[in-house]
Amino acid sequence: MTRCVRGLFVSATDTGVGKTLVACELIRRLRSLGIDACGMKPVETGVGEDGPLDALALRAASGGGDSLEDVCPQRFAHPVAPAVAAEWEGRSVDLVAVLGAFARLSARHECVIVEGAGGLMVPLTPAFDMAGLAAELGLPVLLVARARLGTINHTLLTLAELRARDLRPVGVVVSRSEGELAEADERNLAFLRAALGELWLGDIPYLDDGVGVPNRAIDLDALIRSLGLEA
Prior knowledge:
- The protein has 231 residues and is α/β, with parallel strands linked by helices.
- It is globular.
- It is built from 9 helices and 10 strands.
- The protein has a single domain, classed as P-loop containing nucleotide triphosphate hydrolases (Rossmann fold, 3-Layer(aba) Sandwich).
- Strands 2-5-1-8-9-10 form a 6-stranded parallel beta sheet, with helices on both faces. The protein has a two-stranded parallel ribbon with strand order 3-4.
- The chain starts with 6 loop residues before the first strand and ends with a helix.
- Helix 1 packs parallel to helix 2.
């Protein structure tokens, strides 16, 4: 197992929950503190004519200096799990290419923020999932959680799986990407926050187009301490 460049693996309790938003925000804020952070999206599915949009956002947040082939070495057209997309397209996910791209980025940068595809157990191949990739890269995991009903179960189950795989969770950021919450959802989040304790690292409000993440929404100081990074 590869150990350990300074960096972070961003996973989630669900798909479409805000991983790219969180990863880009972390990259920008780390760079603003003088930490040479870059982004990577090892595998992106649902790639259309405009290219891998998540990877392009990560590269832009990183300053645009890295090749797209390193930022996103594996791309598939169908918007499904990578293993499914690869089979559908008569291909396979090239893990050697992924690891090579990560090695090149980690040699050029102080901190690599790696965004997974979907959740922790999404398959890259029939026998290898996102949790396996995080372990192979030697990275701790930041979890992005959906704010809606069910988040207590999904979040705690994902954290339990991380620990069962000997992966270190550095914290949880909740994303309110689906809009304003009902009182029941707010009470659920209050329970989750108490249950997580120091693992609770942020709560991102619903954002209109073009509105940036408020600085107070993510406890960057706590995350930097957890990663062992110093500005």
